[in-house]
Amino acid sequence: MHTATEERLIRPARNVSGSLRLPGDKSISHRYAMLGAFAEGTSRFTNFSTGADCASTLACMEALGAKVNRLGNDAVEVTGVAGCVTPSNSPLDCGNSGSTMRMISGLLAPQQGSFTLIGDASLSRRPMERIRKPLEAMGAKLTLTEGHAPLTIEGTRLKAIDYTTPVPSAQVKTSILLAGLQTEGATTVREAVRTRDHSELALRAFGASLTRTVDSVSISGPQTLHAIEATVPGDLSSAAFFLCAAALFPGANLVLDSLGLNPTRAALLDVLTSLGAKIGVLHLEEKNAELVGTVQVSAPKDGLGTTEVSGALAAQLIDELPVLAAIAPYTSGGIRIRDAKELRVKESDRIALVARNLRAMGAEVAEFEDGLDVPGGQTLHGATIDSGGDHRIAMAFSVAALRADGDTLIQGAESAAISFPEFFDLLDLVAER
Ligand code: S3P
């Protein structure tokens, strides 16, 4: 059971404006940490994610024999194990991080030795069958606890497979690719919706070769990875809170620089545009195959319009849906979200928690198994918000609170540090009161 330890009072704002540079992308930081720790040589990463999730990945990789040297708050040097990890005597603690657990499982399945992976209460409830199935098809020995963590892996030689993911998941795709990297023959992952491709780009940056088609990626193993130096782009999923906050205020003008703009992550920009926000992208460049740029956002004078998120878009926007739903009452025509059942198995049941917290603020909302209908044109009042220990819920409702009548109390506010420890300080910086 989660116990809330920190409360934050969010006062309404008059406007949102300013210029920010955001900490490194969580998804990319996980991958750089894992690949750097597995590679030959010493990698150096700057603007590395400051979130607790990526610290969990670094700690696991350190326990597996990599050398991790923190060079300050957001820079880290990682000396890799050159393809051969050391089994750890104690369980590998993945904390709150599903990415850590699912991706490391694929990395470890073909290694020698026995490994146990554990996580916190939230992670121990999340589905792990989705990695067990493909990894077992490759010959891996994986034991779950009623479909969940703790999970144990008895490392063994694997065989290549051709696998179609039943649910779009970049974590599952990555898990299979990391096993395939170490397995003779071509391992192929096919997906109906192209999920974030940071693993493919990072594997190439570390020297691996893989082939891609519109809906598949293949890796032929075994291959060796080589250390890199990289600056992690700013996290677009963290930026989402600020972009949505700015979109609520007709006088807003917010600039976010060095932001990751990988097309498989940037659907939010299109959705905000369809709601009427003005989004400008400047200084676009490529760093280690990842697109990075400056984003400027301003809001429509007569308020946000209406939109629907369903089908492939729901999968591409999955981490940004809580904040979109949280600002939906302030749009004129509301926001309809469908095909987002995956939200129920994230760090919390995000559909249920978003609905409950919107209602606590006085909003009308209809909840479905796979989404939400949030009507527009509503006035919200300040309320006590239960974040459920989920970082994205805590931050989403801090944004909704900016336009509410009265103050809002966010319970479990410390959870923001899972992905974005600087969130409340930066919000104070750009929210004009
Ligand atoms: C992630 C993939 C997504 C996303 C998560 C990070 C990743 O999860 O929700 O926050 O870094 O690969 P799924 O793979 O479960 O869709």
Task: Describe this protein's structure.
- The protein is of the alpha/beta class.
- The protein has two domains: about 5-20 and about 235-430, Enolpyruvate transferase domain (UDP-n-acetylglucosamine1-carboxyvinyl-transferase, Chain); about 25-230, Alpha-beta prism (UDP-n-acetylglucosamine1-carboxyvinyl-transferase, Chain), CATH 3.65.10.10.
- It is about 30% helix and about 25% strand.
- The protein contains 13 helices and 24 strands.
- It has helices at about 25-40, 50-65, 100-110, 130-135, 170-180, 200-205, 235-245, 265-275, 310-315, 320-325, 350-360, 390-400, 425-430; strands spanning about 5-10, 15-20, 40-45, 65-70, 75-80, 90-95, 115-120, 140-145, 150-155, 160-165, 185-190, 210, 215-220, 230, 255-260, 280-285, 290-300, 305-310, 335, 365-370, 370-375, 385, 410, 430.
- The strands form six sheets. A five-stranded mixed β-sheet has the order 16-17-15-2-24. Strands 4-5-3-14 form a four-stranded mixed β-sheet, with helices on one face.
- A hairpin with a 2-residue loop joins β16 (about 280-285) and β17.
- It is globular.
- The mean pLDDT is about 95.
- Shikimate-3-phosphate (S3P) binds near residues 99 and 171.
Would you kindly provide a brief summary of this structure?
With 433 residues, the protein is of the alpha/beta class. It is built from 13 helices and 24 strands. The protein has two domains: 216 residues, Enolpyruvate transferase domain (UDP-n-acetylglucosamine1-carboxyvinyl-transferase, Chain); 205 residues, Enolpyruvate transferase domain (UDP-n-acetylglucosamine1-carboxyvinyl-transferase, Chain, Alpha-beta prism).
